[in-house]
Amino acid sequence: MYAYKPPTVSDTQSSNNYLDSTNQGRRKQNGSRPTSLAMPFQPDNFQTVGVGACIVNPENKIVGIGYNGMPNGCDDDLLPWSRYADDRLDTKYPYVCHAELNAIMNKNSADVKGCSMYVALFPCNECAKLIIQAGIKEVIYLSDKYHDTTEMTASRRLLNLAGIEYKQFKPKRNKIVIDFNSINHSGMHNGTLGIHSP
């Protein structure tokens, strides 16, 4: 079962400050990129990498977030998380909801038309359909490791036909570290909130 539960939209709505791509503790306002909310995470089951997605409106306010997981009401412990098995029904693929789907379903506004989506992995063809139907105008992704698969080729075709821009986010550092213990120390005066690059 997942131990990670991403913040809700209401948790993040009050702040429009995000780390800039240099990850040096500096913050940007108005025009910043909320890439950290779309970063991959490691769930407790260690059989898969969690994927996050974040939808941002034209004012750079977060209007939806999601992560890959089982549908609401379906116990994570009762469904498979394997990537490989003799029978496809014994893998996660027929069951899991992708981060993009959850971000769109978890939106806090009437629609997400004209918004941007930040996601850890380039969206599959099924998610591309949802992105198009939702009216999202731009997709910023971190990794395209499945680029040559049929699903990703179909996704690019769909996004191109719909006129949706997509581009890869290339961070200047390969990781950030969040030190949750720093909140208890007096070093908070510099405003970094314990987030720094190693």
Automatic annotation (TrEMBL):
<dbReference type="GO" id="GO:0008270">
    <property type="term" value="F:zinc ion binding"/>
</dbReference>
<keyword id="KW-0479">Metal-binding</keyword>
<dbReference type="Pfam" id="PF00383">
    <property type="entry name" value="dCMP_cyt_deam_1"/>
</dbReference>
<keyword id="KW-0862">Zinc</keyword>
<keyword id="KW-0545">Nucleotide biosynthesis</keyword>
<comment type="similarity">
    <text>Belongs to the cytidine and deoxycytidylate deaminase family.</text>
</comment>
<feature type="domain" description="CMP/dCMP-type deaminase">
    <location>
        <begin position="26"/>
        <end position="166"/>
    </location>
</feature>
<comment type="function">
    <text>Catalyzes the deamination of dCMP to dUMP, providing the nucleoside monophosphate substrate for the thymidylate synthase/TYMS. Also, part of a nucleotide salvage pathway that eliminates epigenetically modified 5-hydroxymethyl-dCMP (hmdCMP) in a two-step process entailing deamination to cytotoxic 5-hydroxymethyl-dUMP (hmdUMP), followed by its hydrolysis into 5-hydroxymethyluracil (hmU) and 2-deoxy-D-ribose 5-phosphate (deoxyribosephosphate). Catalyzes the first step in that pathway, the deamination of 5-hydroxymethyl-dCMP (hmdCMP).</text>
</comment>
<dbReference type="GO" id="GO:0004132">
    <property type="term" value="F:dCMP deaminase activity"/>
</dbReference>
<dbReference type="InterPro" id="IPR016193">
    <property type="entry name" value="Cytidine_deaminase-like"/>
</dbReference>
<dbReference type="InterPro" id="IPR002125">
    <property type="entry name" value="CMP_dCMP_dom"/>
</dbReference>
<dbReference type="GO" id="GO:0005737">
    <property type="term" value="C:cytoplasm"/>
</dbReference>
<dbReference type="InterPro" id="IPR035105">
    <property type="entry name" value="Deoxycytidylate_deaminase_dom"/>
</dbReference>
<keyword id="KW-0378">Hydrolase</keyword>
<dbReference type="GO" id="GO:0009165">
    <property type="term" value="P:nucleotide biosynthetic process"/>
</dbReference>
<feature type="region of interest" description="Disordered">
    <location>
        <begin position="1"/>
        <end position="40"/>
    </location>
</feature>
<dbReference type="InterPro" id="IPR015517">
    <property type="entry name" value="dCMP_deaminase-rel"/>
</dbReference>
<protein>
    <recommendedName>
        <fullName>Deoxycytidylate deaminase</fullName>
        <ecNumber>3.5.4.12</ecNumber>
    </recommendedName>
</protein>
<feature type="compositionally biased region" description="Polar residues">
    <location>
        <begin position="9"/>
        <end position="24"/>
    </location>
</feature>
<dbReference type="InterPro" id="IPR016192">
    <property type="entry name" value="APOBEC/CMP_deaminase_Zn-bd"/>
</dbReference>
